[in-house]
Write a structure and sequence with these properties.
Length: 258
C-alpha cells in the first residue's frame, strides 16, 4: 500500500492518516486505492469498532486532488480516477462502522468529500472550508452531492461560485461539520468521541446507519414505517437484550456485535 496513507489500530479504533504534508496532503490515485484496501480490511476486522480519518502535520487537513496527478494522461484515464474517487465517497458514506473526521487544518475541494463522507466531523476552530475548483476551470462535481445534502442549494452555490473560505464556526452553524473546538482541545475531543463509540453496540450502529441512509429521500410516512421496521431488527439482536439487562441491573453493557 502507498505510504501516502498510514493505517494503524489502537484501542479498537482504526486510524487512517493522510500522509503528504509536503504536498498539502493532496489526494492521489494511490492514496484512494489505499483507502479502498484499508476500508475493506476494517470491514472484516471485528475488533475495530470506529474509524478516525485525519491528516499528518498541523497546517492542513487536505487540499483536494493533486492536480499534477489528476489532470495528466488521457481523458479516459482521468475519468477513471474520478470514478475511483466517487466509489470511495460511496463506500465511506455507506460504511457500516462509524467514521469520525479529525480536521486539523483547512479542508479544500476533494478533501471536503472525504470529510463529509464521515458521520462526525470535529475540526479546529481556526480551520476553514473551501471549494476553489472554479478558479482553475473545473467544478466540485462529486463533492457537490454531499454538500447539497448537508447544507442545501443556496449555501452550496455560495461556496462553489464565490470560492470563499468558510470559517469553522460558520461551518458548524450551517451543519457542514459537527463541532469546532480550540486547537489544544482537538485531540481530547476526538478521542473522547472515538472511545465512546467503541463502547456502543456494533450491530445496533450498523442497522441504524443503514436505516437512516435508506430514508434520506423518502416521504415522511414511508420513512417512519421503514424506521419502525428497522427498530424491530435492532430489538431482535442479542446486544439489545444485553443493553436492556445492563440498564436494569445498573451496570455497563458488554456488547458482542450480534
Amino acid at each position: 500500500m502507498s505510504d501516502s496513507l498510514i493505517y494503524e489500530v489502537r484501542n479498537n479504533v482504526a486510524y487512517l492518516t493522510i500522509n503528504r504534508p509536503d504536498r498539502r496532503n493532496a489526494i492521489t490515485q494511490d492514496m484512494i486505492d489505499s483507502f479502498h484496501h484499508y476500508l475493506d480490511q476494517i470491514q472484516q476486522d471485528k475488533d475495530v469498532r470506529a474509524i478516525c480519518l485525519t491528516a499528518a502535520g498541523d497546517r492542513i487537513f487536505c487540499s483536494g486532488a493533486d492536480l499534477g496527478f489528476t489532470l495528466t494522461g488521457e481523458e479516459d484515464e482521468r475519468l477513471k480516477g474520478a470514478r475511483n474517487y466517487a466509489s470511495l465517497l460511496k463506500k465511506m458514506t455507506e460504511f457500516e462502522k462509524p467514521l469520525v473526521a479529525r480536521v486539523n487544518g483547512p479542508c479544500l475541494a476533494g478533501g471536503l468529500g472525504l470529510m463529509l463522507s464521515c458521520d462526525l466531523v470535529i475540526a479546529r476552530e481556526d480551520a476553514y472550508f473551501c471549494t476553489p475548483e472554479v478558479n482553475v476551470g473545473i467544478f466540485p462535481m462529486m463533492v457537490g452531492a454531499l454538500l447539497l445534502r448537508h447544507i442545501g442549494l443556496k449555501r452550496t452555490m455560495d461556496m462553489v461560485l464565490t470560492t470563499r473560505k468558510m470559517p469553522a464556526g460558520e461551518a458548524e452553524a450551517v451543519g457542514l461539520i459537527t463541532k469546532a473546538v480550540p486547537f489544544d482541545q482537538l485531540d481530547k475531543k476526538v478521542e473522547e468521541i472515538l472511545q465512546g463509540l467503541t463502547q456502543k453496540s456494533p450491530i445496533g450502529i450498523k442497522i441504524g446507519k443503514k436505516a437512516f441512509r435508506d430514508v434520506w429521500d423518502m416521504p415522511f410516512d414511508q420513512a417512519v414505517d421503514h424506521l419502525c421496521k428497522a427498530l424491530g431488527e435492532v430489538i431482535a439482536t442479542q446486544d439489545a437484550a444485553e443493553g436492556m439487562r445492563a440498564f436494569l441491573e445498573k451496570r455497563k453493557p458488554e456488547f458482542k456485535g450480534c
